[in-house]
Structures are given as C-alpha cells and as structure tokens.
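User: Sequence in, structure out. Go.
Assistant: Echoing your sequence, followed by the structure tokens.
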Amino acid sequence: MQNNTTEKNQEKVFNKHISLVHNNSPKAAFKTWQDWQKIIAWCTLVVVLCTSFLIWKQEKWNSVTPSHGFTYLGIRPGLTMTQNLIGDIVFEEDGVTSERIVFDEALAESESAEEKILLALKLYEIGNLSMVTSPYSGIYSVGSSDSVLLGQTLPLQLQTIEIRDNTTAEYYRAKYQILKPGTELDPIVLAMGSQAENVERKYYKAGNSAVTYQRTNKIYQNQSGMLIGDWSQLATVSEDRLETMTLPAPYTSAGFIGDEGANIPSVQSTGLCYKLVDGTNTYVPRYNDSFDQNIGYEKTDQHLSYVLDNVALQTIKSASVEYNETTGVYIVSMVANTITNFYTCAETRWSLADSSATGDKNANFTKLEVKFELWDNGYFKKWEMWEDWLAANAQPMPNLFIGEMSAVQYYCEEFTYNSEDCDLSRFDFWSAN
C-alpha cells in the first residue's frame, strides 16, 4: 500500500514539474523526455530571438549618413561684425578675410585667472552674437551619451541640425538620438535603450506665441542611410517638458535683419523680446531667465557667466585663451562649476529630472567643460562640450526604481554661415514624414 502511495506522489510531481526522482515506468520516462524537449525548444527559441534582436539592432543603424546636406561647414565666412552689444570691441574690414585686432595686452602672460575668464567670456559673447546677427547661421553636431544603468553602459549616438535665418527671424532644430550602431547589449538594457531612441524637432518665427515642438520614437533610415523621424506617430511628452520646450527664448530663436526702425513682433507675455543693436538694422533676441537676468542668445543652454560683483553668477572656475596668428583663430577653453553654483544649470536640470529622463528630482550635472574655436572676424568655427550628470535615485519608467544612473556626454559641432546651407526649404519640417 505504501509503495502505491509513493508511486502516485511521484506521478503528481511529474504532472507539475520535472522530477529528479528515478522512476522505472516506461511511460514516466517518455513523459520526462517530452518535458525536457519542450524546455530545450523554449530555451532555443529565446536564444534565437535574443540573438536575432541584437543583430537586427546592429544592422538597423549601420552606416548612418548625416542628414544636413551642408557644404560649407568649417569654412571662414567673408563677413565682419562691425559693432556689437559689448561696446568695446570693434572689427575692421579688409575686404577679403575680415581680420580683427588681436587682444595683445589681454593675452599677456601676466594676466590673472579672473582676467582670463573675462577674456574667454568676451570672445564667447562675440561668437554668440554672430549667430543671430549674420544673415544665416547653421550648426551640425555629432555626439555621444554613454549612460550607466543597472550596471550596464547604454551608448547613444546624437546628431543635431540647427539653422537660423536671421533675414526672416526663423529658427529650426532637429535632434536624432539612437543606440550607437554595432553595439552589443544585454537584452534587458537594450529594450530600455530602445525607449531612449527618439527624434525631436523645433520651429520658431519671431512673433509666434510658442515654439512648435514635436517628438517621435519612430525612426527609420532611407536608402541613403539618413535617419528619418516618422512624424505621423508623435510621442506623448510630460506637461513640464512640453511647457519648457514650447516657451520662446533666445536659445531657440533667430535674430532679425530688417529696415532700421522696424518694429519686429515680440511676445511680451513670455518674456522674449527683440533689441535693436545700436547703429545697425539688426534686432537680437533678449530674455529674462529664471534668475531674472536679461540675457541674449548663448551657444549652450547652460549658463557660462562671470559677474564681478555677484558670486552667484560666477559660473566659470577657470579659462584659457590662445591665438593662432597663422590660422587667425582663437582657441578658448572654460571649466564651469556645476556643483555649488546653481545658476550654471538653472535652465537645464529639469531635463534630467523629467519623467522621460531619470525621474529623479535631485539629478544634477557633475561636469561641464567647453572648448571652442573662433575666427578673428568674430564667428564660431568649432565647438566641443563635455557634460556629465548623475541621478542617485533614478526611475526612468513608472514603478521601475533602478537606483543610480549616470551619463558621460560629448558634443562636437561645426558651423556654416552660407545661405544655401541654411535654406530652410530644404528641410520640409511641416510635412508628416
């Protein structure tokens, strides 16, 4: 009787699980082999699917082709800034390359650390002003963002196109973010990384009440290898993100070259307005930021500043300036304070804390360094920036707490001031696809 009970118990175990107890019954052996076959089949399917998924992702983003179509990147413009808002800088026109007087005294070895910072920022202001006072300006940026989550590195590739038509006061920007081509990742991290892939685009014309902002997570490549966003399938973004992205500000606007005395439309309710540059017919965008500082266009939406009588607005820790007489280029480096100076990242911390990013309200930038080249006629040639950030309590998805999340980011940008490069009609940003 006891043996029969034991056999029945063993049979019950077989019905629920795979038994490791030896059973002499031929039927039991056959059933055990069937169970193992099912498990082997399922494991094989999972492996095949994961492997196929990884290979598909690598092939999907193979050989990404730049989508800007620029032909004059990094070429010195035959333009001269004759006057600007700084007041004490005057440019001279020689008819060809537009040379300017070198800061011989400012570049002397005896200058203090503070004088180096002020000189670097003066050159930064000159470059910023050229972006909104030349008839046209364009930027092509390539970058990388290596995020660390769940102990795995999530490598992203960034591509940005930015154009200003300062003859019509129009601005356009498109940013593509994808997983770095050819990278093998853990399937779980890869699935999360796929959620980070997106395309964002913005458009603004002076006088509009808001910036047009759209985002899609559907991206594909055309036959030429260019990344294309599927704008027929727009992504849902948080209210905070939408409010910030659609708010007119100098960073997402253009200047305006018009008849002297013209009254360009301003959106006073948002704080954005346009100021006429003395002695010119050019209007530049101005804005009161979150610290109630009246500022113009800055190359980065981080604040690089050094106000002598206000420590809270001294965001630069150190700087260096060199001048190459052969190429006629200034080489400027600046290191910003992101930890103890809140103003440095006052306009950008939200992008880390946003629910579509880390979901950590205390996330912050831990590093910000820039290096740029400026032609001595007052125009940006090249821009490099290093940004690191950290979120100690990240929640990138609802009910998914992953603890620490961080990223190391790098951007390299080149500039064009050519009218054909900056022809907005080439980008057809109103179409659905």
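User: And one key feature?
Assistant: Residues 2-48 form one domain.
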